[in-house]
């Protein structure tokens, strides 16, 4: 194991202790394949699953894996009208499992997320019975302030480019603290604990995943 990988493993152990005191479950996997296996082990077949927009859960292979299993999937991307989006979101709130990543996670186990339409952070906060988060060690920061800075400098600019948004950061790579109609930074949520113990489960992966 490389020195960086070992350091990441040490950091993950510290983060998992922080998650435990905050009522969240933490797991550490060396590879994406291990992370997918762990996530599947947490979700019995027959469960109802939905997810938020996340490069991480696609990159690690989890989305491909769940589509090969006996799950009921709720996909918001199938909606063609605003009314259908509302109806799918209503079903998502009642899902057994909600899959997502986090924009940042602190060494003490706090989650930092910024959202454009709040569907992702809404489901993180309440609704689905369980939330499973896949996060590469590239998402780790020292504290909440560093997490917010990471989002503005490392996550939002490439995401707006990926989504073809007309924002200052999409054009310059630098946060403009904008109020653009295309802004993806509308809601900021800091998760310092889970009100329902064990509802939020974080799988840390010893790889870089997502933005």
Write the layout of secondary structure elements.
Layout: H1 3-21, E1 25-29, H2 32-42, E2 48-51, H3 55-59, H4 62-66, E3 72-74, H5 82-93, E4 97-100, E5 104-106, E6 111-115, H6 119-125, E7 130-136, E8 140-141, H7 144-162, H8 168-172, E9 187-191, E10 200-205
Parallel strand pairs: 1-10, 2-3, 2-4, 4-7, 5-8, 7-10
Antiparallel strand pairs: 5-6, 6-9
Could you characterize the architecture of this molecule?
With 211 residues, the chain is of the alpha/beta class. It has one domain (3-141, 184-205): NagB/RpiA/CoA transferase-like (Rossmann fold). The chain is 39% helix and 21% strand. The protein has eight helices and ten strands. The chain has helices at residues 3-21, 32-42, 55-59, 62-66, 82-93, 119-125, 144-162, 168-172, and strands spanning 25-29, 48-51, 72-74, 97-100, 104-106, 111-115, 130-136, 140-141, 187-191, 200-205. The chain has a six-stranded parallel β-sheet, with helices on both faces. A four-stranded mixed β-sheet has the order 8-5-6-9, with helices on both faces. Strand 5 and strand 6 (111-115) form a beta hairpin. The protein is globular. The relative contact order is 0.21. The model has no long low-confidence stretch (mean pLDDT 96).
């Amino acid at each position: 194991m490389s020195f960086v990988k070992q350091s990441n493993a040490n950091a993950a152990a510290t983060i998992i202790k922080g998650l435990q005191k905050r009522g969240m479950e933490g797991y550490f996997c060396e590879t994406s394949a291990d992370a997918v296996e762990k996530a599947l082990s947490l979700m019995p077949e027959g469960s109802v699953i939905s997810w938020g927009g996340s490069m991480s859960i696609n990159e690690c292979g989890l989305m491909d894996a769940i589509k090969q299993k006996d799950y009921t999937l709720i996909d918001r991307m199938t909606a063609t009208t605003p009314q259908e989006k509302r109806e799918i979101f209503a079903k998502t709130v009642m899902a057994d499992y909600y899959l997502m990543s986090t924009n940042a996670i602190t060494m003490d186990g706090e989650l930092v997320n910024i959202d454009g339409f709040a569907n992702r952070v809404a489901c993180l906060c309440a609704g689905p019975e369980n939330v499973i988060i896949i996060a590469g060690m590239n998402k780790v920061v020292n504290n909440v302030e560093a997490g917010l800075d990471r989002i503005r400098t490392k996550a939002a600019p490439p995401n707006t480019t990926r989504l073809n948004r007309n924002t200052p950061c999409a054009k310059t790579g630098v946060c403009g603290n904008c109020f653009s109609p295309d802004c993806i930074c509308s809601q900021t949520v800091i998760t310092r604990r889970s009100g329902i113990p064990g509802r939020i489960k974080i799988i840390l992966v010893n790889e870089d995943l997502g933005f």
